[in-house]
Structures are given as structure tokens and as C-alpha cells.
Amino acid sequence: MRHARPTPKGRRILLAATAVLVVAVGVGAFALTRDDAPVAAPKVAAPSATGSPASAPVSPPSGVPSASASSANLPLPSPSPSPSPTQTPSPSLFVDPSGAAAKQVRSYENAGETANAALVKKIANSPTATWFADSSAGTASRARSLVTAADRAGKLPVLTLYNIPHRDCSGQSAGGAASADEYRSWISAMAGAIKGRDALVVLEPDAVPQAVQGCLDEERKNQRYELLGYAVSTLSENAGTRVYLDAGNPTWITDTDLLAGALRQAGVERATGFSLNVANFETTGSNVSYGTALSGRLGGATFVVDTSRNGNGPAGKGPQGNEHWCNPPGRKLGDPPSTRTGNALVDAYLWVKRPGESDGACGNGAPAAGRWWPEYALELAR
Questions:
Q1: Which of the 8 DSSP states describes residue 20?
Q2: Does 2 fall in a domain?
Q3: Is residue 62 part of a domain?
Q4: Residue of 259, 207, 212 lying closest to 232 (CA atoms)
């Protein structure tokens, strides 16, 4: 059976006609740095611890199941076929020429390190999200500059908004707005800054799964859902903004019914869809299976997948509990960012986490979350 995708204001949204907005940290983007233990039922488990041009068509990545595949416990409807490129031309994603990777390329070239420069160009020449993660003066103007530059280039920018109060539950990326009122004001300013331009927004990585997992008391959890709902509604008022509410990754909240209920509380039915695998390493195939199952519990909602660093899949868990998510060695760049996925449920493969930026100061000389780390960038690109 053909299922309509949920869209704001009752309109059927085609991603090709709009831009993807990912809420971002700005120049020094904060990394999402949590990958907590799976939650299989309402009784939650404790945490384990904390380029190709985008316009080029891509085939489904190796190992990716069809949209009708499911890893969950309920049968799913078969999705509608992907539209023909002649019917829905896919937008090209915006490459920010001022990112840390581009600066590193210039530094290597000036030093005559041509091999290293060539490696980091794989990152610098690929579209990545821009993160906005604080309420400081100038954040909204930076967002406006970004969407304006992308509009002039005829490309779609991806923004990641990451400023929810009690962010990351005191983890590596702790912080966020100081109050609910400050967050609402910030969201309103960000929505105003991108109004009139196309944008794709990834909204508050980890916020919903952490609330499900139980790191917030009941009052703060309810406030979080209310604030996320406000953010979805406010951002979605912009005709050109496509909002994807973050839903974690396949190994975190394994009960898709439980997660779907939380996403509804947070306003996902007013969003364009949901996002998966932000700053994580789970394979594309695993994310598509999980996303398809979750979509089936959300009326056929579409989703985007962060493929920035999942080329080798996830690392194993170690004795300290964070080895599999905090700058794990041996990881590689994943599928190139693109809005042509070959899957009707998957709106885009994105590089939400900017490859080469640290997950946190978790040993081996790693800098704080969101800081550029050239050695790790080189390892990912090799």
C-alpha cells in the first residue's frame, strides 16, 4: 500500500524542491558524542558510557536492504517507488569553503605535504553540515550567511541545531541553552535567519533517545519534548525548511514502538522526518533497516542517515565503555553525501558529523568535542 509522507501544513513534501536544514554548531561545531546502551522496553537500561559531488546519482550502498525490509517485530508496508529524476530533480548539497578541512588542505599544501592535502580534500570537497550549538550573539547571522551563500550557489545547505537545555546529559558535549525561554528565543531567531531560503535542518541530535533512556527527570523530560515540539513547529513554518528530528542510532533504543511514541511527543509528525546515526559509526544497511522499521511506526515518515564515518562500521566496545563511539581508531569515511539514495524512504545520505572533528577528549591526545583533529581526519580518509 502506498503511504503518504507526513508533512507540515498537510502538504506532501518532496525533498527535491527544498533544502535540508541541519542545526549546527557553527565554525566550531560540537560533536554528538553519545552512543548509549540499547533500551528494549519501557524499563530502560543504564548507559554504557558516555568527494563525490552531491548532485551525482548514487546506487544504494552495498548491503543496504530494500525499503520494505525490517529489523523490527511488526510487518511493514511496502513503500512507494522512488520518483524518477525527471519528475523530482534532486538538489545538490552545499559545500562550505570556509570549513576546518579546507583550511587544513591549504596548510598542508603550503607545507608541501601534498599526499596529506589530497587525503583531506576528500573531506573538504564534500558537503558537510554546519553546526549551531550556542545562543551567543552572531549565531543567527552566521546561519543567515550560510543559507544565503548556498542559495547563491544554487545548493542546499545542511544545518545542525544543537542547543537544547541539559544537552548530552553531562557528557562530552554538555551545555545548551540555560533555560526554556532562552531556547525558544534562540529557535525563533534561527528560524528567522533562514527564512526565505531553502535549508535542511537536523534537529537536536541525541535529545529524544536520551530522554527515553532516562538521563532526565520527569519534569525535564516533559520540558524537552515541549521544546522540541516548539522547535519543529517554528522551523517548519518556513516553506523552504525541511526539519529532521533526531532519533539516535540502531543500537541505542532498540524498541521502535517506544521510540516512536517519544518522537511523536516531540512533534515528529509536524517535521519532514527523522535523522539517524549522527556522529555514529553504524553501517548504512543497519540504519536503513532500523529506519524502515521506525518509519513503519510513524506512518511512513522518511529519514536521513549520517554516513560520514561509517565506512568500516562500528568499533567494538572496550572496558571503559566509550571506545566504540569516542574517536575509535580504524574507522573510515562512509557513503558520499547525496539526496539520491535509490530508496523512497531515505531522503538523503548526509555527512552530519564533520569528519576530522573530535568526539571528545577521551584519550590518545584527542581534543574536546567539536575541535578539529587533523590526525583523525587523515586516518578516516586513508
A1: E
A2: no
A3: no
A4: 207
For the chain, how many structural domains are there in total?
A: 1
Grid cell 525541511 in the structure block, residue: 242
Distance CA 186, CA 346 (A): 29
| DSSP-based three-state secondary structure for 273 | strand
Contact 54, 377 (CB under 8 A): no
Considering only CA atoms, which of 243, 241, 290, 213 is closest in space to residue 50? Answer: 213
pTM of the model: 0.80
Residues 227, 229, 233, 235, CA torsion sign: positive
Q: Are 281 and 331 in contact (CB under 8 A)?
A: yes
- Are 128 and 96 within 8 A, CB to CB? yes
Does residue 257 carry a catalytic annotation? no
Q: Is 228 exposed, middle or buried (0-12, 13-18, 19+ CB in 10 A)?
A: buried
What pLDDT does residue 319 have?
74
Residue 335 is among the residues annotated as catalytic for this protein: no
151 classed as catalytic? no
Q: How big is the CA angle at 128 (ends 144 and 236), to the nearest 5 degrees? A: 50
**CA dist., res. 8 & res. 111, Å (int):** 50
**Residue range 219-223: mean pLDDT, rounded:** 97
CB 337, CB 349: distance < 8 Å: yes
Asked whether the beta carbons of 92 and 84 are under 8 A apart, the reply is no
Element containing residue 289 per DSSP (H, E):
helix 284-296
User: Rounded to an integer, what distance in angstroms lies between the CA atom of residue 142 and that of residue 356?
Assistant: 22
Considering the candidates 35, 134, 206, 347, report the single residue annotated as catalytic: 206
* Residues above pLDDT 70, as percent of the chain: 76
Give burial (CB, 10 Å; 0-12/13-18/19+) of 324. Answer: middle
Tell me the three cell numbers of residue 336: 558520499
Read off the pLDDT band of 90 (50, 70, 90).
confident
Burial 61-82 (b: 16+ CB within 10 A, else e): beebeebeebbbeeebeebeeb
Nearest-10 Cα torsion for 271, 286, 159, 27:
150
Active-site entry in 35, 36, 96, 168 = 168
Find the CATH number of the domain harbouring 281. 3.20.20.40
Q: Which domain holds residue 98?
A: 8-56+68-381
Does a structural domain hold residue 28? yes
Asked if residue 102 belongs to a domain, the reply is yes
